[in-house]
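If you are new to this repository, start here. Below is one unmodified record pulled from the training split, so you can see the exact layout before writing a loader.
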Amino acid sequence: MQMTSTDRTADVVIIGAGIAGTAAAYYLAKGGAKVIVCEKGVIAGEQSSRNWGFVRQQGRDPAEIPLMMEANKIWRGLERELNADLEWLAAGNMVTFANDEEAAGWEDWRQLAQGYGLSAKILSRSELDAMIPGNALACQGAILTESDGQAEPTKVTAALARAAEGRGVEFQTNCAVFEVETTAGAVSGVVTEHGVIRAPVVVCAAGAWSGRMLRGLGLKLPQMWIKGTVARTTPGPIISHTATWTGVAFRQRRDGSFNIAQRSADHDLTIDSILNLPSFLGSFASNRRAIKLHLNRLSLDLLRGSFSKAALAKELTTYRILDPAPNMKVVNETLQTLHRLLPETKDVTIERSWAGYIDMTPDMLPTIGAVDQPSGLVLATGFSGHGFGMGPIVGRLVAELIQKGEPSLDLSAFRFSRFHDGTNLTPHSVV
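And here is the target side for that same chain:
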């Protein structure tokens, strides 16, 4: 497309106003960059406001541990830095285990984490009972990382966006990016539904839409949409503010309400399910009992697969906010499990429930960094359900990469080329 008098310019255009894209905008602006964020819907309209709210170092892939340790430092001062209530609670993260084999696996991870300087400890059943009195958890013990925390997803990205705007970042909501333009092998801007924005750097932080958008540049990002269901209860007695994974995942907020979820997930079949199947066979085989396959309206709408610019444009403007229906069977089962495991919650009921699409990669690691071609394109996507806690450090690292030429932490494990250079893509994550 030729430049017109209505074309705009920026130092960096960011596609997607989730937590990663918004944090990147904030840190770039702190460094003096002119940044425009294009979001097809609203700020944090999809997974960044729909996750569990866990901010954990525990159970991370070794490659993620250094990033999450640095992220933890950011989180501890983020309310003060942003002058906002994020419902931050540094109350730890705990995962229970059922037998000696699981205990040994967690001990291996604890020792691995210790090598990075991250402290975690194995709890006996009696120590666990002292932390959560009156529980009926079906477990032998647990692992606890006391330095972990939690925050409220609906507040965090909004606060980052306000802070970014205060430093001059422009957020263009209801503004889908239809195409990333290139000139002589380098990024030159983006074509949006409201016109062209010229920029030498584009950050793709489009979450579940990233794979479909990158296809127009000839880049294949293996990505699956996994739908997770979450619910919030009415307030109950304060039992524990430690975010916990057991027969149910729960975190108790300051007001006593619980966010609850299960490991089960739903996958709505699309053309990408077929195209990316070879990359995901191992993950699907090991998690086949937890993943339920569905064919629904969204599946049918997306079966054409965004193979043309017109098809992608229609998808982006039709689905401005992916708002899938929660799996109410899962919601009801999760509440019943919570009542059984924590008898003191017997009177809490479901206040609301929701669902969101997680952008899964074959190895459950994100893709963070610049691609080889076209130059000027930076990716921050594929967080596989682990991205909320990592969001602030990803934003800072993306800004460092763009403005300093090198990030302060090693991002080689998250390179885009790993999907095509023969790297073993078997997931390592414990949770």
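Two things worth knowing about this chain: The two ends are 45 Å apart (CA to CA). The chain has one domain: 8-419.
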